[in-house]
Amino acid sequence: MIVHIQNPYENLKTEDIAKKIIGQRMFMNWPFLQEGQVVAVSDSLFKYEMMVVTPGTPARVISNPHAPQGLGHWKMKSERIEQYYSKRCGVITGNVDILLHVRPLKGLKRLESGAFVKDYEGPNKEVEQAVQMCLSEVISEDPRYLEREAPPLSEEFPDGSKIFFLGEHAYGVAAQVSATTNTTLSVILAFFPSELAENEKFKAVVNNRQQSRYYPSFKAAEQVGITGRALGKITSSFMVITSDNQKTNLGLSLKFEAKALKVIDYSRKEGRNWDYSQKAVDLLKEYKARNLSFLLPVFVADTGLVGNVP
C-alpha cells in the first residue's frame, strides 16, 4: 500500500506560511508524531524568522537569503526527507519545497508561581521537517505534557507532610507542614541551636581561608611523582582487603565524584576535571613517602599505577 500526502500549504507563499506558523506548536515526524515549536520556515532561497527590527516595536517575519553553500545544503535536506518517506515508509510526500525549523518539546517546567508550562529544546537540537508532514493539532494529546495552573497549596502540601525548608534561615533542615492558606504555608522546623553554631563556624572557615594555588590533576601527579590514574585512586576512596579479610580504605578522601563533594582548601572541580591545591600536593608527597613500599605491589597489580620514583 502506498500513501499519498496532500499538501494543504501548496498554494500559499512561504512568507504567508511563516507568518501563520512561526511561534506556534506543531506535531512533526508523521506518523510517529512529536510536538515541537516552529521557530523558522525556509524554502530553497530564503529562511524566514520572527525578529524585532526596531527596539520597542513588535516582532515581524524577516527573510534572510541562504549562504552560497547553504543552497545545496538545503536541497540535500529536502531530498533526504522525501526519499526517507518514499523508500522507508511507502509514503509519497510530493515535492518538499518548504521546511519547518522545529524545536522538539523537552517536557514541562515549573514556574515560580507553581504553574507547569511547556519547555522546548534549544537551537542545538533544532530539526527540519517538510511542512506537509506536520500537523497543527491532534485528536488526543499526551496528558503528561498538558500545561496546567499551580495546584492549591493544601493539595500539594497536605497538613502533616514532611518537607525540606529552603528559606533564608535554617536552610535545608527537615520540616513538617502545620497549616496552609491560599498563598502561605506554615511549617514546624526540626532545628537545633547547635546546628546554627556549627553552620556559622563552617561559614567562617570558608570566608577566612587563604587563597591557594591549584594545579590540574596531571600537574599535581607530576609533582608527586605518580601517574594521573594513581592520583585519582589515592585522592578518592581506595578500598583494599587485608590479610584478615577486612576492607580498609587507604585513600585520602579528598574528592567524592559520585556525591559531587570536595574538601575545602584541598580540592575543587572545574567542569569535568579535578584540581588540587599545594596543601593537597604536600599531603600526597607525605602519603607517598610513608606508604610507597606498602602500596607498590597494589598499584603495580592495578596495571602499573605508580610512576617513576624520584
UniProtKB/TrEMBL annotation:
Residue ranges annotated for the Exoribonuclease Xrn1 D2/D3 domain, each copy included: 152-291
Gene3D superfamilies cross-referenced by the UniProt entry: 2.170.260.40, 2.30.30.30
InterPro entries: Rib_uL2_dom2 (IPR014722), XRN1_D1 (IPR040992), XRN1_D1_sf (IPR047007), XRN1_D2_D3 (IPR041106)
Record-annotated 5'-3' exoribonuclease 1 D1 domain positions: 1-148
Domain of life, per lineage: Eukaryota
Name listed for the protein in its UniProt record: Uncharacterized protein
